[in-house]
Design a protein that fits this description.
By secondary structure, this protein is mainly α. The chain is built from 14 helices and no strands. Helix 7 packs across helix 12 and helix 11 crosses helix 12. It is globular, with a radius of gyration of 23 Å.
Length: 287
């Protein structure tokens, strides 16, 4: 229809709910991701450590299965405490990064390469909604390998140890959920920013891993040059580990402040959001 005739009228009918619109993209993205055999294999491999931890929890609560000679020493070693959950979280956080590096680049890069953003933003969908929908894809993908098995381990331990243990250690379960959710958001924003910055999927996946390796190497270099320990907070993994220790009530890392580590992660998230804001434009102006 010719524009000068002014016969076009915008849609005036009812709109679906905001969350209904947001869930469209995650639903199709999950379906597409789980059709990839390598991704399924990575998820299965990431479940080995939670299963091993579940076996550890069972043995720790059934010391009578051990020989009588070794029960006294095993009771001191087989403790389900903050250190146990910290080791579990450190291991699963690595799998979260690997899965994000594999799945994240396929979320935004194809839309930019095929110039599909105008089609998205011509609907009742803002840039914030678009980023949130893509982030929800990674939250749904990484949750089954992070906080979900952590909650199951905490529930398993609470059921075996009884109400007294739960009332004294409930903060461990809350710390696992809160700590992993923060890590998922950080890793997800890194993956989305790399996907938006580099349109080639393989290169974007390598860039996701490179961000964590480069920041870790730069932090260690600063520590060596300045002969300090506080530069480790610029390593996202070390900063997240310190926050986990504070949430779990474990012994703190020397030279690191929980507040400083949280500030670094907030600054990193703000930088990644700025990259997404700059790259996700419905119209690209080339000068």
């Amino acid at each position: 229809m010719a524009v000068y005739r002014r016969g076009y009228q915008r849609y005036q009918g009812p709109l679906t709910g905001r969350w209904s619109r947001l869930m469209v993209m995650p639903r199709f993205a999950w379906e597409r991701l789980f059709q990839q055999r390598l991704l399924v294999i990575l998820i299965v491999i990431s479940m080995f450590w939670p299963l091993a931890c579940a076996g550890f929890v069972y043995v720790a609560n059934h010391l009578d299965l051990l020989p009588a000679v070794g029960q006294s020493g095993a009771s001191r070693l087989l403790q389900i405490d903050a250190d146990f959950f910290l080791v579990f979280m450190n291991a699963q956080s690595v799998f979260a990064v690997i899965l994000a590096a594999f799945a994240g680049p396929s979320l935004i890069a194809p839309d930019l390469a095929n110039n599909a953003l105008p089609l998205y933003f011509s609907r009742p969908l803002s840039r914030a909604d678009y980023v949130l929908a893509r982030l929800m894809v990674l939250v749904g993908l990484l949750s089954p390998v992070t906080w979900v098995p952590g909650v199951l381990l905490f529930t398993m331990q609470s059921g075996m140890a009884g109400w007294t243990w739960f009332s004294e250690n409930w903060r461990l379960g809350a710390a696992v959920v809160a700590g992993f959710m923060v890590w998922i958001v950080v890793v997800g924003l890194v993956a989305l920013a790399c996907s938006a910055y580099v349109k080639w999927r393989i290169i974007a996946g390598g860039l996701v891993l490179g961000v964590f390796f480069i920041l870790a190497g730069a932090a260690e270099m600063m520590n060596a040059i300045l002969r300090v320990d506080w530069a480790s907070m610029f390593n996202p993994a070390k900063s997240m580990n310190q926050i986990w220790r504070a949430l779990l009530g474990a012994e703190s890392n020397q030279g690191l402040s929980t507040g400083d580590c949280a500030g670094v992660l907030v600054a990193l998230a703000a930088l990644l959001l700025w990259v997404l804001e700059r790259k996700l434009r419905p119209v690209e102006v080339v000068s």
